[in-house]
Amino acid sequence: MVVMNWRSKQRIVNKPQQTYLLVSRVTSRNALVALAPFTDELAAWSKPPTTAINEEVRLNHLSDATLATFQSSLVAKNSHYNR
């Protein structure tokens, strides 16, 4: 993965997610190449807002519940056919 720190001169278009603007596969023993040093300032700026993190957690729980429902349905269906 290549991580690039790029920011526009037009501040309004800059988003924290831009830290990972350029992501591509590389063959490397280190697996990560940074085109700019990953500083504490960059890490703080890149951190998603709490609302985004909370939404990610909520969606993960919803996804887990949905998958569990599908799994239960498949198990019930298969046990019915195996009788």
List the helices and strands and how they pair.
Blueprint: E1 2-3, E2 33-34, H1 40-46, H2 50-81
Parallel strand pairs: 1-2
Structure write-up:
By secondary structure, the protein is mainly alpha-helical. The chain folds into 2 domains: 1-47, no CATH class; 49-83. Helices cover 47% and strands 5% of the residues. It contains 2 helices and 2 strands; from the N terminus they run ββαα. Strands 1-2 form a two-stranded parallel ribbon. The longest helix is centred in the last third of the chain and has 32 residues, at 50-81. Residues 21-27 have low confidence and may be disordered.
Describe the structure concisely:
The protein is mainly alpha-helical. The protein has helices at residues 40-46, 50-81, and strands at residues 2-3, 33-34. The protein has two domains: 1-47, no CATH class; 49-83.
